[in-house]
Design brief:
Number of domains: 1
CATH architecture: 2-Layer Sandwich
Helix content: 40-55%
Strand order of the largest sheet: 3-4-6-5
Shape: globular
Distance between the termini: 40 Å
Number of strands: 6
Number of helices: 11
Length: about 240
């Protein structure tokens, strides 16, 4: 299948619309909004930094295949390692999807989403895990995320919100994940199960683990692990950067 330019960006196949800063890639309007959010965080004693931003289809494919094959670690909701060899393929898929998206379905493909942490809260050399313990009560990044919650609630987040603000029975809560609503919603509304099926059928892009199950259950998996996300607040969705 031939994908349009927009679809290629949606699926993580084209990063031409992105710009790079500090080793991370995002769309230019996202960088501008993030700069404002970082400045506001700094005034409150936080040093907001990126742990992960744009991720290509090929990168997501490697993560997916590694976890399904047991070559990469898979953790449960308590951050404990899971022995995927003891699970059925369906159980394994559901376990992986709690924290890792299917190739083509990751919001990190869009250049609108990023995972953040507070550099000021940890010592140099600290390895960020992006775990529930880090962002929950008593965790090193909890204070910054409490502050972010307040900014989002007050409509002062410069377009950012949390798509995985709570567990909706699909993807686990990811307090570290921010999305730039003015651009992200366009991609979200155009991502479909049929589009993903067409993507996975392109063997030139590489084989995907458990493709037969993904194909046969695409609608159900899509609804649970892709579509079940928070609705952005109007203040984030309608954010207009200063002229």
């Amino acid at each position: 299948m031939t994908f349009s330019a927009f679809q290629r960006r949606l699926l993580g196949l084209d990063e031409g619309a992105l710009t790079e800063q500090g080793g991370h890639n995002l769309q230019p309007p996202v960088w501008s909004a993030l700069s404002r959010l970082r400045d506001a965080a700094s005034r409150h004693g936080f040093q907001l930094e990126i742990a992960s931003a744009y991720r290509s289809y090929q990168r997501q494919l490697a993560i997916w295949n590694g976890k399904l094959s047991g070559e990469r670690a898979v953790v449960d909701d308590n951050d404990l390692n899971v022995d995927v060899a003891r699970l059925s393929i369906e159980e394994c898929i559901n376990c992986v999807l709690r924290f890792s998206a299917m190739p083509g379905a990751s919001r990190h493909h869009w250049g609108t989403d990023l995972d953040v942490f507070d550099t000021a809260a940890v010592q140099g050399g600290y390895r960020v895990q992006l775990s529930a313990a880090e962002v929950g009560p008593g965790g090193p990044f909890a204070a910054m995320h409490d502050w972010l919650d307040e900014r989002i609630a007050e409509g002062k987040s410069f377009g950012f919100y949390r798509p995985y603000d709570k567990d909706r029975g699909g993807v686990a809560a990811e307090r570290w994940h921010l999305s730039y609503a003015p651009l992200a919603m366009e991609y979200q509304n155009c991502c479909t199960a049929d589009l993903l099926r067409s993507l996975w059928a392109d063997v030139e892009l590489g084989q995907i683990e458990a493709r037969e199950v993904l194909d046969s259950q695409a609608e159900m998996i899509f609804e649970r692990f892709v579509a079940r996300v928070a609705t952005p607040p109007d203040s984030a969705l309608n954010y207009l950067p200063p002229a």
